[in-house]
Amino acid sequence: MRIPGEALMPDTEERGRDDSALGALRNNDALGVWRNDDALGVLRNDDALGVWLRQKRRQMAHTALVEAQNTYTLLMDQWTETAQAERRGARAANVAKDCVAHHTRAVDEAMAESAMDAEAGEAFRVWAKGRGRAVCLRMAAFEDTQRREHALEQHDARRGGILRAASMEPEQYADHAAQMEEVHVLAVGQGLFTPGEAHKRLGLDTLALKDIVFGSLYAADPGKAMAAMSALGFDAARQKRERCRFDGDARAGELMEDAARRDRAAVLAGDVEDAETAAALTGDGNGLRLLAVQFLDAGEQKAAEELLRHADLYESHAVVIKESAAMDLPALSSVIHKLEKTLRAVASASLRGVLETELGLRAAVYRHRETVLLRDPAEAVADEARGETEEQTASCRLAAQARNGVPEEDRRVLTNAERRSLVSLAGRLAAADAAARTAAYAEFRERLGRHADRAVGEILAAMGEEGMRNNTGGTDGSAGYSRMGECL
């Protein structure tokens, strides 16, 4: 009678046939049992242990297969990620071929790291072949995309270079057009565009090329650009538009030139009065002649001719002018009155013209000198009234003003510039101590001598004028000079 469950265990004699197999089982080393043919012979019967060992064998084979697949996937993913990041543009060439080589290495490495039997190894190779094919097809698409993008970049760079060259060398339009056509033919050969697409793109680029060439020519020489329109292939409508533009620009240019000439003439006109005054007082027309040249450059021919005529007039009457400038004003006034009286009695037209010219020149000198005397009496006679000391100079100035008819109350010892300088000095001394102010005043009186009091009066009058100019708030504007004024 068999004990229940006895069929599940081999008898003692059979167990003793291969201690190593049982030892392997005790250690849960199913693979060791699987690889021992003698032990397998024990398990040929479809008993429970044999079923368990076969299941274990299948599980281990599946695990080894999965591990190999994971290893392969990791190796391929790492390689493709690096390749897509680093091999872009021209560097993507042959990336698909390299992917196939890496696939082979990845398969070998995955199998070497796993413990698959022949059946599992074959299953892995079939799987890896399909997976590798998909990866390499993806990398082939990546290579094609990069090749196309790189080719497009090169295509655009060549187009841009041609357009830039055309802007710098517009006269070489024919060469630039031929190069542009060659670039588009090459693009068709590279598979970037179909012939129809390339034809459309070439048409657009040719239009841009013509516009750039025409614009560069127009900027340098509008007339030359007009002459080149036919060679550029502009149609009648385009040529008409460009001629209208040319005519408008020409008119605008003329208007701008006229405005610029008028502006230059206006600037020069400000110098004419000074040059006329100098010539009228000295008989030297060089200043007027120099201005005439500048007026000619500004396109003002009539004004230049008038200045030259005045220069000739002053120079031809230099003796009269210099004589009038040297005379005292009362004497000059007497000469003018005599000329006016003579002019009224002369009947000869030619003689009247001569007298009128002389009268006008002498009267101009008189008016100028009179204006200067009224504005700054001491300055008006400064050149002729000089002494060895400041006191003597003051005496000469007063005498010269008297000779020129300046009333006593209007005569000045100091020029306007000298008065302003002394007022400024007085302002600085006002902040000094009494001893410094007293010393400065004593020195001033010593220099001016008997004219010191008159000069002090002129300074105080200037202080009052300065105070009134500064008095905007109802206070005494000369208060800052009060202490110096007391000293003076």
Please sum up the structure shown:
This protein is mainly alpha-helical and 488 residues long.
Oligomer: single chain
The residue-averaged pLDDT reads 80
| SS element count, helices | 22
Low-confidence stretches: 1-40, 472-485
Distance between the termini: 160 Å
Structural class: mainly alpha
Bin the helical content: over 70%
Query: What is the overall shape?
Result: elongated
The major beta sheet can be summarized as:
none
Over the alpha carbons, how many angstroms does the gyration radius reach?
57 Å
Sheet-strand content, in percent, reads under 5%
List SSEs in N-to-C order: HHHHHHHHHHHHHHHHHHHHHH
| Number of DSSP-assigned strands | 0
Description:
- The protein has 488 residues and is mainly alpha-helical.
- Among the domains are: 6-146, no CATH class; 169-234, no CATH class; 379-487, no CATH class.
- 78% of the residues lie in helices and 0% in strands.
- α7 (118-168) runs parallel beside α9.
- The protein is elongated and about 160 Å long.
- Residues 467-488 are annotated as: Disordered.
